[in-house]
Amino acid sequence: MPKEMQSELQPIRILQAIQAGLGHHQAGRLPEAERFYQQVLQDDPNNPDALHLLGVIAHQVGKNEIAVQLLDRAVSVKPDYAEAFSNRGNALQALGRYTEALASYDRALGIGPDYMEAFYNRGNALHALKRHDEALASYDRALAIRPDYAEASSNRGLVLHELKRYAEALASYDRALAIKPDYADALSNRGNALQELNRYAEALGSYERSLLFKPESAGALYNRGLALQKLGRHEDALASYDRALAIRPDYVEALSDRGLALAGIKRYAEALASQDRALAIKPDSAEVLTNRGNVLQELACHGEALASYDRALALKPGFAEALSNRGLALQALKRHAEALASYDRALAIKPEYAEAHWNVSLCLLILGDFERGWEEYEW
């Protein structure tokens, strides 16, 4: 074939290979798609579309360093390639390089100001960077372009949750679920918001709906256990934690709260063993050390409980729960003045902490200091 005709056919062959690759790609046949994209690069080593799509595949299979390299090549050839900049941001985000990811999304939006996916992914990067207000604004921009974007509504709820705006978070999850009723993650996160609002029975229902669609979610099973525990259903909570641990044996929070469920049914030796398993995995967890202290208190090992609370507070000095429970251990050891000081520290951190107020009142009753109980601790 004459060279002139070969050069005329080359763009057609490249286009056909790209289209064939996309067909496989969209059907999830990634190795087949990759072969077609590589075929394009044999004809045109700097083809930006093939480089971009190979970068997308690399990201999809977890090879994010390679993805960034391929996407860098794509945007160097085609500097106005908004989609490649956005997908480059996704690969960087997967590598935990959130500031660089944010810059890549901003480049994409500089080229395509209404690029909805870039606004959504930019919101995710800002969320990871704890820039909550900016993350909300980015999700809102995505939702202004596409109001039925369930993922943006759900992730917006996560940011609101972190800001302790639980009722607004719940509304955002409900909006996502109105669009996508089988959205398991939104159902699970909705349960978390309901727990924060002390609506435990509704939270339980939300977790159970989530598990219908995603039965192997260790997180939903763990949070279901928390709701059951709040409802006083310790045996059921224990079963839920055990299901979570069957999926994820190193789930520290599930092991620790499993210990509390065991303590709730007076299986204290097993409860302590569960706390110790959690602590072996994560020895610097203030939460686990506090829960371990709580179990030790049930075993009347008040000195050991005090030591566990002190270890927790060395790691997390502002941990109000540890301070309040430390006061209980000191009170059991008849060190009442120190107990009151520990409660006072807890209340300085968390003034509305009802349990700490109650513990102060009990301690003052023991000491006969009724006047302080009524004048200083109004609740």
Structural write-up:
- By secondary structure, the chain is mainly α.
- Helix content is 79%, strand content 0%.
- The protein is built from 22 helices and no strands.
- Helix 10 packs antiparallel against helix 11 (184-196) and helix 17 (286-298) runs parallel beside helix 19.
- It is elongated, with a radius of gyration of 28 Å.
- The N and C termini lie far apart (92 Å).
- Residues 1-9 and 370-379 have low confidence and may be disordered.
Q: What is the 3D form?
A: elongated
- Poorly predicted ranges: 1-9, 370-379
Series of H and E elements: HHHHHHHHHHHHHHHHHHHHHH
* Main beta sheet strand tally, sense and closure: none
How far apart the termini lie comes to 92 Å
Count of DSSP H/I helices: 22
Mean pLDDT: 93
Class from helix and strand fractions: mainly alpha
Q: Calculate Rg over CA atoms.
A: 28 Å
Q: Total strand count, please?
A: 0
- Report the sheet-strand fraction: under 5%
Please give the share of residues in helix: over 70%
